[in-house]
Design goal:
242 residues; Arc Repressor Mutant, subunit A; Endonuclease, Chain A; two-stranded antiparallel sheet; 9 helices; 48% helix
């Protein structure tokens, strides 16, 4: 994972990432110098620096009537977030006592952005720990959405003891690792079946990722449809050779 992606995963925008990295490299600067280095308007940089300060990434000092901005050291940022997480963990029992029983969610949910999709998959690691789900589609187009994230996701999925049964297109071979430690049971579809979409079939929902959708992906949580697609997957699996 790149340093930029790691910072984005902490909730920083592209512009916030660029400014934080710029300040790390320069050791500190006035707002106009930051704006020039990053290539944004001076009027915009103040708002972004203020947001970074609130998030614990930037510190502001005054020197000879000038505002100087400094990047917090990465270890200090890490400690700042550790304390926030620790405080939240301490509150979990109290929050759970207030929580109503979750309603069964039935219907459609649209995933508009790549960050939303990655958040969905990160949730799978907790929700399906020690379980199994199925997938049919193209490893090539799936992985190319974010190469680093999905390569790591496969490894994290295996660490969570999640097994997968996967039917993928022939053009996916070079994107399909063979390590048994990844807990993947893979079959390749006949060459004449080529498409860009991918479908994950879970016990209670289906995730469809497709460039042909108006959104990046859609989650279908309709029991009857889940049952049909699960049965169709098994039928294809049983008639398809390894």
């Amino acid at each position: 994972m790149t340093s930029k992606q790691a910072l984005k995963d902490l909730g920083l925008s592209d512009q916030e990432v660029e400014i934080y990295l710029s300040l790390l490299k320069t050791g500190g600067a006035i707002a106009s110098a930051v704006a020039k280095d990053v290539g944004i308007k001076r009027t915009t940089v103040y708002a972004t620096l203020s947001a970074l300060s609130k998030k614990g990434f930037v510190t502001k000092y005054y020197k000879k009537n000038k505002q100087l901005f400094y990047a917090e050291k990465p270890q200090r940022v890490a400690n700042y977030y550790k304390k926030k997480v620790s405080s939240f963990v301490d509150l979990i029992p109290k929050l759970e006592s207030l929580e109503k029983k979750e309603l069964n969610l039935v219907g459609l949910r649209y995933i508009e952005t790549l960050d939303e999709l990655k958040k969905f998959y990160s949730g799978v690691l907790d929700e399906y720990k020690g379980k199994q789900y199925k997938a049919i589609g193209t490893a090539k187009h799936w992985q190319e959405l974010d190469n680093d994230f999905f390569i790591k996701y496969r490894k994290d999925r295996a660490k969570a003891k999640i097994k997968t049964k996967i039917l993928i297109t022939q053009d996916s071979k070079q994107y399909s690792p063979t390590e048994k430690t990844l807990l993947r049971d893979v079959k390749f579809l006949p060459k004449k079946y080529a498409f860009k979409s991918t479908m994950d079939i879970f016990k209670d929902k289906i995730l469809i990722i497709s460039p042909e959708l108006s959104s990046l992906a859609v989650v279908i949580a309709i029991p009857a449809m889940v049952d049909i697609f699960d049965a169709m997957f098994e039928m294809i699996w049983e008639t398809n050779k390894k």
